[in-house]
């Protein structure tokens, strides 16, 4: 390749692979190691930062690209998110969209199976929807259920094999006596 060696060096320094060295969450900046050089604090590029905002800061040791206008690393932007051995992809199928977290939690959607899954090991889930939550389809719950408020069933409620709507009582007597347990 012929031409001005300074221009060739500048062009070669515009996009540089590196590794995140440190992250400042408050300033929304990170430093990048490129060989034996470490940059000063630089902003990272977000997935979305307008009317929709997604907070997913880079991680130390995550591979990245340093985008440097005119080759100036002091005026660069960090494009995180290159898979590596330390941070492999959470799935390998074209049908699966997945988000994996360091604590083994995962959100995934399998487009071929039409299946959405959320795994929260040793954690909890909170839904705050003042307008309500509507579920269409059968629901299976393994574990206890606590209801604070009215439980309304349009058909029937069955507990221990006994129908709330059509169960019978034995030992019924006239007057103020109590009935027996449902039969």
TrEMBL record:
Pfam families: Apex, Phage_base_V. Residues 16-83 form the Gp5/Type VI secretion system Vgr protein OB-fold domain. It comes from the Bacteria. This is Phage baseplate assembly protein V. It comes from Edaphosphingomonas laterariae.
